[in-house]
Amino acid sequence: MSLVRERRHQEPLTLSIPPPPHYHGIPRDPSPSSFSSSNPDSSSPVQTLNDLEKLTVLGQGSDGTVYKTRHRRTTALYALKLIRPDLSITTVEADTLKRIESSFIVKCYAVFANSSNLCFVMELMEKGSLQDMLLAQHVLPDPVLSTLANRILQGLRHLQEMRIVHGDIKPSNLLINKKGEVKIADFGASRIVTRGDYCSSGTCAYMSPERVDPDKWGFEEIGFAGDVWSLGVVVLECYKKVEIPVSGSLEFRDFVGRCLEKDWTKRGTVDELLYHPFVKNRQ
Ligand SMILES: Nc1ncnc2c1ncn2[C@@H]1O[C@H](COP(=O)(O)OP(=O)(O)OP(=O)(O)O)[C@@H](O)[C@H]1O
Fold first, then answer.
1. Ligand 1 atom nearest to CA at 123
2. pLDDT in tens, 73-93
3. Residue pLDDT, tens place only, 106-150
4. Which of 111, 121, 140, 185 could bond to 94 as cystine, CB 3.0-4.6 Å?
5. 169 touches ligand 1 (CB under 6 Å)
6. Which residue among 77, 80, 129 is best mutated to probe the pocket of ligand 1, counting the most ligand atoms within 8 A of its Cβ?
7. What pTM value is reported for the model?
8. 3-state secondary structure of 279
């Protein structure tokens, strides 16, 4: 199941007012009455979007814009992602997103919908994405890479326990907080596998061979194996190589080889790779 998908595929959460026919640029701040939470959750630190004051733009994705915001009362900082009005999410999916609690996954505190946007209130990751880091730095040293791979695997293990396939593991979806910890973000292409109605969203460059074959894509193990493949591509990219380098350590080469095994039935699983010498005992 795609957590966020084209509106035509799903009933929207609560969008009583139709979106404007032409939507350009930064949306206006909507009135509180036009918002509805996926679940008015009294434990959420953000009850309405009006609790938040926009400070700066953190980044721009293909579906929308991410802002740094401050809670007007508590002054706590959050990231707020506003995405295209023609995308939708069901209440069940939004609730699943909010239930994910892991120190390896960017926390989603609340989901709101109004006539202009779908809005996700998220944990602020102060140091941006791995993508930004790769653009600024040449090669990440092995200890940094193995810690990174370990954290992504732990995040994937948590998602698998919830029967969720991420489906779009890539450097711009791996965010870094002020402590330098990497966490998995962006569930735009995710699927809760028990429902089984997969779609082909995601980013082609990070997709495993079996995922581009629509006849095969649809079994949960394939989905999980696809996330492992994407992890292998990310680790290789951090090494600034397109093929497994002979100059890399034995552990590094074997780890990437296990992630990038073409036959998904032989590929390393998340549980197996967590015990791989390249990532074992790294956090
Ligand atoms: N929780 C967050 N905290 C801090 N910065 C964030 C957060 N979420 C996203 N960003 C920043 O905003 C940028 C855009 O994020 P977004 O998820 O919209 O798109 P993307 O993943 O970069 O690209 P695409 O839409 O193609 O997948 C990210 O690259 C990151 O720099």
1. 1
2. 999 999 999 987 777 777 777
3. 999 999 887 778 899 999 999 999 999 999 876 788 899 999 999
4. 111
5. no
6. 129
7. 0.82
8. coil
